[in-house]
């Protein structure tokens, strides 16, 4: 079985034993448990792992007393609390523990930022380092496998990059894993912690979003189609983003009159999950939506690469009111990078309405054949 080295591993190692908790957010099944156990294996210190999905762990934890928690941790110097969002008042509990026992390195993972962040971030302000672990990036897969071909990229655009999917060789089992993720597992925390009064509407919204990936999203149209209020749609969109199912992309604008400023697009964190949701696992080069699939794949690869940096670029899109569009616009330290996604490189042109407004922007054309160059490897 392939063992994947994650890009954030070294950054986490550099921040161990600094008197701060290490928080690892990300979707379920992205590899947080594997990574945290790997971190434990690389240290000679005494260590302990606690699965907070287990009731016995939660019950001991929620007493909230640092001395009782220390009794549970024992003489271990490193303690991992996996799926920590299941613990009530987790942030306050960890703050009290870190203040009392700063010599113990706490690592907490969570698959839903809406719950873990609310419970941890505020109490642990100034007492934590935070990381996001997405499904595997193309560079992580390449480093672990030694090489990657165009055929491999086509398969990743079909089945996505969750570690269990990438490591599996059987097409049938890959698709079974994706079906389970797409129909149940990714939404576990949303249904557990949030009040979803109509799961059928929630699931219908997810499917509508999957068909609209890469297109402008209208909350009004979604609300009318599903027969619910705009407030409900906005709530569900927020929950899906906080549970790392989707990514909301905002428009880039310098306040020129004819630029879109309030519209947004939605991409799924994993393109394989998106394909499973719409029930289409066909070979990507043969599909009518292959352009949208590649655009979605590339944008999420850019997010994965930037997530490993201390000061990541802001990733957006650009669109004029006349319909001219740039697929990806990144801004960092005042500099602009623009990417236009192409299935083939037969035509290369950018809207003049963009290049005239932003002549200083670095412009790039990217295709499945050239994607590795634009990801820096």
UniProtKB/TrEMBL annotation:
InterPro entries: AAA_14, DUF4143, P-loop_NTPase, WH-like_DNA-bd_sf, WH_DNA-bd_sf. It holds the Pfam family DUF4143. Residues 188-343 form the DUF4143 domain. It comes from the Bacteria. It comes from Candidatus Taylorbacteria bacterium RIFCSPLOWO2_02_FULL_46_40. Residues 20-141 form the AAA domain. Gene3D superfamilies: P-loop containing nucleotide triphosphate hydrolases (3.40.50.300), Winged helix-like DNA-binding domain superfamily/Winged helix DNA-binding domain (1.10.10.10). This is AAA+ ATPase domain-containing protein. SUPFAM superfamilies: P-loop containing nucleoside triphosphate hydrolases, Winged helix' DNA-binding domain.
